[in-house]
Amino acid sequence: MASIREQIALKRAAARNSPIKPRPGYAPPPVELEERTVPGQVSRARRSGKLDLGSMSLDAIPCEVYTDLLGIPEHELTVPPPTPVPSAALATPTKAKQVEYDSFGRAIAGLSLDDDSEPARRLAFGTPEPKKRWSEPEELTALRAPDNMIRELEFEIGLFGGLKSVDLRGNKLTALPNAFADLLRLNVIDISDNALTAFPPSLLLLPELESVIMTHNAIKTLDLTEPVKPSDEGLAYGTGFLITKFEREAKAPKTVLPVLRSLNLSYNQLSTDALAGLAGKTPLRLRVLNVGNNALEGILDASAAGIDHTRMPELASLVLGGNKHLNGIEGDVAAGAAIDTEGCAWGSTGGAAMSLGASPRKPRASSPGKPVGYTPAPGGPTDIPLPTATITFATHPAATFDSLPLAVEMDVYLPKDASPATPLPVVVWWHGGGLLQGNKENLPPHLRRFPNKGLNGQGVIVVSPNYRMAPQAAILETLADADSAVNYVRTKLNDKLAAIGESARVDPDRIVVSGGSAGGYLALMAGVPTPQRVPDADVGGHRGPLGWVPKGIAVFYPITDLAHQFWQTKTDPVPWWGKSVPHEAARPHINPRDPPVATAVSGGPRSILYPYMLQEALFPNLLFYNQRSVGSGMDSFRPDAHTLSATTRLEIVAKREAAMPPVFMSYGSIDDKIQPLEPTVEVLQSTKGETEVEVVEGGDHAYDENPAEQCEAFYTWLERVL
């Protein structure tokens, strides 16, 4: 006879193997998905203080925002809602209802015998409709209304005096109302991709405004001389009853842009003369100024343009790239300021970090990422086309209570005269920066020209995605963004192109993944197929896009071995950087508790992270600091630098003799910015796939950022693969 313990074990086994029987009379409650509507978002904002109206096809801020969150009656709004048409006027004739009579034989008008609804009861007894009860909501601190069709903002927007961040990008705004001058707590505003023609004067005196993003507008003038002052109501917000009007006015800001740290005016229509609007006597606190891809030309006078060391003594990054007719700059900018001149007639070899003196200078030959001793063949094109469209392919929830959801975008470059009937091959290219810095706009010029250059007689689509960066994002999150970009291109990009009126279409069976430096690492991790029977722990929990293999993998000077001794050796200072990076300068960018970022301006403050990482040998630490264990219980494991190295993935494929797509690798012979690539080449050549390696003699890291570089070996390989 079995023991009691054995009997219990048998009964437990039988219970596990038996089908689940629902309890009599029990039905699980239906799952209702909350519809994303204006009332629903306003209701959330009442509790959270954060209002998200993004991508809701709005032509104005809805009245509910002001009536529900501010308690303003509808009839007192600047633009009251239209008077609703009575339902009786729209009703079609129906069969007459039976009328109910009271005890005196009088008909009760409008009430049928079978109508016991609340409106009918109010009508029968003469009871007025109850007013909607209004209660004090949480103070609104964040407003998002991107990707709508808003042309104008109402005066009431200035009554939200607690707003700290405003996102209005992707609308049709031509100006901001003067009421913005009352948003005295505003810290960040994004009004890119609108139709503004001048810098909004209502932003000039905001005392806490640190970041203004105004890219992709039609701004032609900068006038800082006529700021809009805050109203008495704006000054009174949050000050209490005991503060007099004179005391409030005494505390009002007196200087323009008093704490502004970052101003992005790229992709507008600013001329060299228009920059003179930045000039003035009082020093500004700007650290990052981006006026790239405007209409600057000739020699830029730093003093006249207001960007010299007296007007902007704290300037750390000045972006001038993309101004094709800019020939130089005269005057002294702040000491140590990094200048991006990629795409200018002067300094056309790429985005160097350089210091300027009192006369026009050339980029320093020793600047990071610059070819030394290598010159591309002359005679080729040097133009740098702009993207056709910028598309959000992933949106991540807010990482902290006071942050906003993070949109991850991709730039799409399309050929002219494409036809929907002829799907085109695609190159997906990821930018470099050690997974710590950089952005999608770092796409090399030769790839920007590729869509119209074409391949085998037809155009090509080039996609340049962003991704979340370390150390705020864990490495598996970065890899997940790379997988998401591939899946979006394969399954959703065609629908998006059709929706925005573009005729080009993707051929999902002809996709090549590519990238430079850290982007080359992402291309390898997304493109090298993982054999099915390999345990998750052996590949660090990442298998790439499931059920898909690219037509080819093309990597330029890629990071491949995260565990290599190169990344674990301190080098202070980094030779090609030329100076030590202070811990104080890096500390604001390496706090792992900060919300993740998916883009960082080239030459901006975050651009010191890569040399700082090499200086302190922090590469694996920064990538894996926020990485949690994968799995649960005895099956859990912690991904590490070895299991998530591209070389480890290639060794697994070679050992199991698994199929591999064709691979093209190119790197410079004097590249000392990453680990040596010869061991990676050996592993690649041991796989069953076709491998082509190009070593550019005299080429350094990022050699293909030179606008004159044509990368002919790469395009010859593409013709064969695609």
UniProtKB/TrEMBL annotation:
Ranges where the BD-FAE-like domain occurs: 410-562
InterPro entries (alphabetical): AB_hydrolase_fold (IPR029058), BD-FAE-like_dom (IPR049492), GDXG_lipolytic_enzyme (IPR050300), Leu-rich_rpt (IPR001611), Leu-rich_rpt_typical-subtyp (IPR003591), LRR_dom_sf (IPR032675)
Pfam families: BD-FAE (PF20434), LRR_8 (PF13855)
Ranges of biased composition (kind: Pro residues): 21-31
SMART domains named in the record: LRR_TYP (SM00369)
UniProt-annotated stretches for the region Disordered: 12-49, 356-381
Residues spanning the membrane: none
GO molecular function, one term: hydrolase activity
Keywords: Hydrolase, Leucine-rich repeat, Repeat
Protein name: BD-FAE-like domain-containing protein
Species whose genome carries this gene: Apiotrichum porosum
